[in-house]
Sequence to fold (946 residues):
Amino acid sequence: MPRIGVFVCQCGNNIAATVDTKKVAEEMKKLPGVVYTCDYKFMCSSPGQDMLRQAIKENKLDGLIVSACSPHMHEKTFRKAAEAAGLNPYQCEITNIREQCSWVHHDTTKAVGTVKSIDLTRMTIERLKKNRPLKKIKIPVKKRALVIGGGIAGIQAALDIADGGREVILVEKEPSIGGNMARLSETFPTMDCSQCILTPKMVEAELNENITLLTYSEVEKVDGYIGNFTVQIKRKSKFVDEERCTGCGECIEKCPFKTESAFELGLAKRKVIYTPFPQSVPNVPVIDAPNCPKIQKDKCGACAIVCGPKCIDFKMEDKIVTEEVGAIVVATGYQLMPNERFGEYGYGRIKDVISGMQFERLASSSGPTGGEIRRPSDGKVPQNVVFIQCVGSRDEKKGVSYCSKVCCMYTAKHTMLYKHKVHDGQSYVFYMDIRSGGKRYEEFVRKAIEHDDAMYLRGRVSRVYEKDGKVIVQGADTLSGSQVEIEADMVVLATAIVSREGADTLAQKLGIGYDKYKFYNEYHPKLRPVETVTAGIFLAGTCMGPMDIPESVAQGSAAASKVLALFSADEMAREPITAGVNKTTCNACWDCVTACPYSAIERESVKDRQGNIVKWLARVNEGVCQGCGVCVAACRSKSVDLRGYTDEQVFAAINSF
Amino acid sequence: MKIPYYPGCTLNTFAKSFDESARDAASAIGFEMAELKQWNCCGATFPLTPDNLIALSAPAKVLSNAGKEGDTLTTLCSVCYNVLKRTNKVLRDNREKRATINGFIEEEYDGSVNVLHFLEVLRDKVGFDKVKAAVKRPLAGIKTGAYYGCMLLRPFEDMGIDNAERPTVFENLLKALGAEPVEFPNRIECCGAHLAMNNEEVVTKLSGNVMTSAVGSGAELIVTSCPLCQYNLEKSQDKVVSSTPGYTGVPVIYFTQALGLALGQPIESLGFEKNVTDVMPLLKKKGIV
Fold:
């Protein structure tokens, strides 16, 4: 006969107001197998826990129920207390009589609440009788991390993990790390130059001996689970031997062919052998194969002739490298919504309608105009510039429903940069609301308006068209209730931030979730902001949604601290609430394999002594299993069961009701 | 080819020249606009409240009648086109509303008729190259502004005749007719529409913007696809001329009149005399007549 103890919590008045806890305790005492019951004001308090421990010892309890708040709140507390008293922690079960009972019933005569609490507790008792002691699962951990994405968030994460003494592989798609931040001119609200604060970090990442930089590379395949991932990385051919290249730049100088620079967003051209920008890390050029006449038609080859260390190899091919890591940080960043979608603003048709990011390049001292604001069509210095905010953001019909968060701030910054460079120029900003939440952000916007004469007009623009070399902007000023027409020289669109192209495919490779905009989902938006539901994979930066540089950096560090915590022990312990397969009844239909959202179920072969396969079985990888129970529902032969929530336990509870 | 045709009230009365020039042009190209045996007013506005189903019953009746005569229905007036096409979409996609409306008009219509604007018929059913081949009197050298207005293109998801912000169908037709299309900024702006009833000032301003914008871009002629646009532009002409220095007016005609002209129809059959502005001096200047 089991020896069960039942502890009913009053939770001050939270439970006691509508539940007669004393009566619940008394009723439970009458049930077979229950040897001890009591009720108490706060079971979770120190004296409450002491009482519980003492009762376990004195009454030689082999299982206990705490009827109190949701298991999400204090299950851990009570299980720890039970463990301290010498019990298997999984022999402690919680009945939720607060959130699911006392809080939802308002009957102060306590009739309803008491009856329901008795029923619920009785069900848990029957369930507990079928419990088996469980042990935490131990998993070995490989103490190396993979960081995907070499923007500011990824760099920060890599640096922090490396500083914690662990190896990091930093994978970047482009020839250089730096990401979008490398394109920016100055940053709000301090107006420090973006490259000046970014490049030291880029160089640090290159020089740190714990960091292996894999630029011009992409993640191809991810296998395994927390602590034990196997990752295949495609190293795209640079046609330049990274080891031997000295970064002298002679090849770039001598290359006779030019093409559109993706880094400069169509505002400038670059050579076919190139580094994206002068401060590129690593400072190793790559050959843009589709545009290279040597590779396409075997003509030219000037770069190879001038190369001193002879490191150019036109025959170089893509390579796949395999790395074993214990944790992954995803920091793949964002891109801007294609402006062409907004025909009314004339982007792509009118040369002097540009995106905010293009304006950054115009304002950047390393940009195509050397930091002078000159319009793309004829190189004139624009005297009137119109900035249009919320292009695509907060526009469910044509764009996305969310706010891109940084545009209010960078548009204010643009008006300031413009005024500082063109003193007699006038800027106009069409806005919906000014969203400047953040340390010193509101003051920054006020400064743009009050000191730098930015004219803020609250309203939308209906049409932009060209007339006699001017860009005419028609819009509404909803504060004065009038229609406005501005003869501008240049128009800058604050285009919505969207997820990177291919974000969904990468998420599928990693087995992490994403929302309808293909931004990655965090485990919990408030309390676990840099974790994913897949253990061992963490997130940082704008791959989760629009955010500014300080937030991205904070998240990079946060993800790194999670990785370092994981790497702090040789083994990690996991909750044993996982699925298990009954090998005698499993008939290998693989329904569970298809159903499992975490790819935690593998196909296992059973061999005879001669090594012939005699049978196939499903096997649950406990490192990956999250205990969701989908496989249990899917299994037709009832061969899968969830530890801690077995069919036997669940039916026992239901039958006692 | 015989295409079921819904003229609508305005084309049957006030905008007769729009209707007649289109029918003649069609037969010149080689198809027949077969007027529905029975039709009523489309209601002239698509209701903006989603539960105002009674306003959909009139266009639903038209569509249901059309369904008995074929699988397509063409119309010329932009407003009729807008109302019919959007109502048809409701009837096709919303089972609940379809049942209510059908119950009310005592018909069994399922939204299967394909509502086409005459421009769409020319573009998709006939083909502009075939139109081009039928041209006998090319409108060579006439810089023409195609005025779309709003009803023909918007809302884009419902109408889908062309890109709502950068349409080309009208210009392509004009090219086929030998004219020189002029893209002007206000070509898809509103003319003031029904405000003609109670706020003429707004109409004068908006229609004025359309005409001055067209002329500013070099247009010598404006073609319209909507009797209300045509009315508003014509009605505002004199006021705009007197209030805008340097603006001397611009002839405004229906696009079907331009089409008939190019197809070599007799001038007197095109109904130019019904237009407020006189297009003849321009045609004479260009040596077309």
Summary: Chain A is about 25% helix and 25% strand. Chain A touches chain B at residues 342-344, 349, 463, 465, 467, 472 (CB under 8 Å). The CA atoms of residues 176 and 281 of chain A lie 5 Å apart. The two ends of chain A are 21 Å apart (CA to CA).
